[in-house]
TrEMBL record:
Domain RNA-binding protein AU-1/Ribonuclease E/G, residue spans: 208-331
Name of the protein in its database record: Ribonuclease G
Signal peptide: none
Keyword terms, alphabetized: Endonuclease, Hydrolase, Magnesium, Metal-binding, Nuclease, RNA-binding
Cofactor(s) listed in the protein's UniProt record: Mg(2+)
Gene Ontology biological process terms, A to Z: rRNA processing
GO cellular component: cytoplasm
InterPro entries: RNA-bd_AU-1/RNase_E/G, RNase_E/G
PANTHER family in the record: RIBONUCLEASE (PTHR30001), RIBONUCLEASE E_G-LIKE PROTEIN, CHLOROPLASTIC (PTHR30001:SF1)
One Pfam family matching this protein: RNase_E_G
One example GO MF annotation: RNA nuclease activity
Length: 345
């Protein structure tokens, strides 16, 4: 169907949410437990590890975290951190001290004072009124916390914005580094994240038949194949190895330089979506189809524009001496293959 559909269901026995736009799967979230990305924890700092630029933390339930920002902290200190990604097998959870308490209308930022309205707000009067409201809430808190006003706040009832800010500030005020390791704020589940972050939807479907009724199961099943079609006979294979994610772009039957450039541009625009849906991150190496060296700048521009819209931290490292392109993407979710193991195709 045309339009945006948000489907709230389950996949592999786990809570899951999918966003489909004009019949195309754009987003897929699968539950990762209370210690998943976004969880806020109190940990106990260990000794710095030479060569790694950080220190391990003791976290609740026997978990271990790794923190890179340790300035001003000493071994044994209690510290409040937020899970920033998914741990690789056998490795510590990546955590950071920059905290974000997200709501549908606002985001509270402990330790980062100030009020920042979203760039998407168009009405200057509404924006000014919301900023004034947020500044008044911060003045009452007086603890160095900040507020980001999300675009959805522009079209919301003012009292709803005020109430959400008050609730988020109360949660922030309760975050204390004093005490034993503990889970202070569980990671939000996929359904909660979808309701919070995907407000522009034409249809919200929820229940045991949500995925089946809206074709989500078939769209997910297609991701079992590492090959993604690009049009005009071109395709790219996206395959994860132990060390990195390898992406191979092919033009298909047309091996001309013009076809190579077209396939590479299509692949550059499609790559963020494929990595996001497949839950792939870490080091990524792209072997683009053969093209004149002069066209590399055009392809790189397309890559930068495509990844600019992504929430996951991405570093575009550039071209290697052998002509491949390297980038790094934060592991912000579990690989889809792990979830689909045991789920009938």
């Amino acid at each position: 169907m045309k339009g945006a559909v948000t489907a709230l269901g389950h996949l592999g026995g786990q809570e899951a949410a999918a966003r489909v736009v004009d019949g195309r799967l754009e987003e897929l979230l699968i539950a990762d437990g209370p210690l998943g990305p976004g969880a806020i924890l109190r940990g106990r700092l260990g000794r710095p590890v030479k060569g790694l630029g950080g220190a391990f933390l003791d976290l609740p339930s026997g978990a271990s975290g790794f923190l890179r920002q340790t300035n001003g902290l000493r071994p044994g200190d209690g510290v409040v951190v937020q899970v920033s990604g998914v741990a690789e097998a056998g490795k510590a959870l990546p955590v950071g001290t920059r905290l974000l308490l997200k709501g549908r209308l606002a985001i509270v930022t402990p330790g980062a004072p100030g009020v920042n309205p979203a760039r998407g707000m168009r009405d200057a009067d509404i924006r000014a009124a919301l900023v004034e409201m947020a500044e008044a809430a911060l003045a009452a808190a007086d603890d160095g916390t900040g507020i980001i006003l999300r675009s959805a706040a522009e079209h919301a009832d003012a009292e709803a914005v005020r109430a959400e800010i008050a609730a988020l500030l109360a949660t922030a005020a309760a975050l204390s580094p004093d005490g034993p390791p503990a889970l202070l704020h569980a990671a939000p589940g996929p359904h909660a994240v979808a309701r919070r972050d995907w407000p522009d939807t034409d249809l919200l479907a929820e229940g045991p038949r949500a995925f089946a009724d809206h074709g989500v199961e078939d769209l997910i099943d297609a991701l079992r194949d590492p090959v993604a079609t690009l049009g005009r006979g071109a395709h790219m294979a996206v395959e994860a190895t132990r060390a990195l994610v390898a992406v191979d772009v092919n033009t298909g039957p047309d091996g001309s330089p013009a076809a190579g450039l077209k396939a590479n541009l299509d692949a550059a625009r499609e790559l963020p979506r494929q990595l996001r849906l497949r839950g792939l991150g870490g080091q990524i190496v792209v072997d683009f189809a053969p093209m004149p060296k002069r066209d590399r700048g055009t392809v790189e521009q397309a890559l930068r524009a495509a990844f600019r819209r992504e929430d996951a931290g991405v570093v575009l490292a550039g071209w290697t001496p052998l002509g491949n392109f390297e980038l790094q993407r934060r592991r912000d979710r579990r690989p889809l293959t792990e979830v689909l193991d045991g789920v009938p195709g």
